[in-house]
Amino acid sequence: MTDYTAFKVELSNHIAHVQINRPEKINAMNAAFWREIVEIFQWIDDTDQARVVVLSGAGKHFSSGIDLMMLASLASELGKDVGRNARLLRRKILEMQASFNAVDNCRKPVLAAIQGYCIGGAIDLVAACDMRYAAADAQFSIKEVDMGMAADVGTLQRLPRIIGDGLLRELAYTGRTIGAEEAQRIGLVNRTYDDHAALLDGVFAIAAEIAGKSPIAVAGTKEMLSYMRDHRIDDGLEYIATWNAAMLQSTDLRVAVAAHMSKQKPEFAD
């Protein structure tokens, strides 16, 4: 498996554990982070043995967001011409958006395990995940407004479907920090845990349950749920009919039915 500078990646029991691994920098997102996350999730997408992903941060905090040194480096590239500066900035923003699109578009479910700070760009990242879980000490803040900018890599586009438009506007306009309890109450996280150890135990248990299901069924379910974000119900019904016309021919269906009838746990091929 490839060694990364901003991440640690492990695959065990069909669970890919992707850990942001810059604890000394509060897991700030440097240039290597944005490049490597695309490579990692492409590898996960291409690796049949990986059926589900747990995304976490090493140390006391999930992530403090974008590395300010990276922003300073980008600012140093700007010249005097407004048009060329705009072209450069637009290209950089689209590249960063693609990094989190790689998470969102991954065929495997992605579960975020969040402790400590989840600030700025980290909110963009977890918004691209399927589910979010938090330790009791987790703190969430859409911090971009305090930096004099609008969030531009996914928070404003994905969070309305997760927590609702009105509440997102409040958090995005004010930059207010919310804790784990409020995050669960508004639907940002599914569940909270007493501490980091309990968080990881709980999230890996959920991941193991998903990994035990048919990978064909799980991938199809995620595809349909993602499709329905941008389509009408009748479009979705037409799509699932076409999808399942092929996928119901998988041996996984027979394996699942046989296991259910014999009251045994099914074993699915990758």
* Biggest sheet record: 6 strands, mixed
Poorly predicted tracts of residues: none
Order of helices and strands: EEHEHHEEHEEHHHEHEHHHH
The percent of residues in helical segments reads 40-55%
Structural class: alpha/beta
Cα gyration radius (Å): 20 Å
As laid out across the biggest beta sheet, the strand order is: 1-2-3-4-6-9
Total tally of structural domains: 2
Q: CA-to-CA gap between the ends?
A: 19 Å
Q: What's the average pLDDT?
A: 94
- The total count of strands amounts to 9
The CATH superfamily label of the largest domain reads: 2-enoyl-CoA Hydratase, Chain A, domain 1
In a nutshell, what does this entry contain?
The chain has 270 residues and is of the alpha/beta class.
Structure description:
With 270 residues, the chain is an alpha/beta fold. It folds into two domains: 7-211, 2-enoyl-CoA Hydratase, Chain A, domain 1; 215-262, Orthogonal Bundle (Lyase 2-enoyl-coa Hydratase, Chain  A, domain 2), CATH 1.10.12. Helix content is 50%, strand content 14%. The protein has twelve helices and nine strands. The strands form two sheets. It has a six-stranded mixed beta sheet, sandwiched between helices. Strand 2 (15-20), helix 1 (31-46) and strand 3 (52-57) form a beta-alpha-beta unit. The protein is globular and about 70 Å long. The model has no long low-confidence stretch (mean pLDDT 94).
